[in-house]
Design brief:
The chain has one domain (about 5-195). About 45% of the residues lie in helices and about 15% in strands. Helix 2 runs antiparallel to helix 3. Strand 5 and strand 6 (about 175) form a beta hairpin. By secondary structure, the chain is of the alpha+beta class. Keywords: Membrane, Transmembrane, Transmembrane helix.
């Protein structure tokens, strides 16, 4: 499996470092990124600001009074976010990847809003009708079911899949797995030129 290693360093004076859960953990890439899509090698049409997180080991995490290894997935996710370091950078996306990212965000927003609206509408309908009805029950069930389903569009645009990128645990680099050869070659040339000029 081919990999491209992009060196990173601490972002000194970054205003986001003042956030409690990210203090001292935000990094930026040392070299500029190629203006090419990681996946397809095509020219970029968008450069969204992306946080590439590390994946710290929380398997040994002991949460509260729960027995060893019994932490709920949500609590373990929160602990992972607390321990993760972030490389924040504007990443190049081609038209295909940018369209996928936009549709993923729109799908997530639509499912969340529909879920919330159905739950609220069912509560209002229950108050107005005064007695439980099958339709009201189905509105509640559907509304709550849409909330976890909203994570599906987000899974299609997560950084590890869309950019094939992960930050190493100490934040010193971002590793891009299976980059397009054009992206990998341009990243290498930029890195060599940047080192030569310094």
């Amino acid at each position: 499996m081919t990999e491209t290693v992009l060196p990173a360093r601490m972002a000194a004076g970054d205003p986001l470092m003042k956030q409690k859960n990210l203090r001292g953990k935000i990094f930026h890439l040392v070299d500029p990124l190629p203006d090419r899509c990681v996946r397809h090698g095509r020219s970029a049409v968008a450069h969204p600001l992306v946080n590439v997180l590390s994946d710290p080991d929380v398997d040994d995490l002991h949460i509260g009074l729960l027995p060893h290894g019994w932490g709920s997935p949500l609590m373990r996710w929160a602990a992972r976010m607390q321990r993760a370091v972030v490389v924040q950078e504007k990443w190049p996306l081609c038209r295909i990847c940018d369209r996928l990212r936009r549709w993923g965000l729109r799908g997530f927003t639509a499912l969340v809003l529909c879920g919330i609206l159905l739950v609220v509408a069912s509560v209002v309908a229950r108050i107005l009708v005064g007695e439980p009805r099958t339709a009201i029950t189905w509105m509640v069930v559907t509304g709550f079911a849409l909330l976890p389903l909203s994570l599906l569009p987000l899974s299609l645009i997560r950084v590890q899949w869309l950019l094939r990128a992960n930050t190493v645990t100490d934040g010193s680099a971002v590793i891009v797995k299976r980059p397009h050869p054009t992206f990998a070659e341009e990243a290498r040339q930029i890195s060599e030129a940047h080192r030569a000029s310094h």
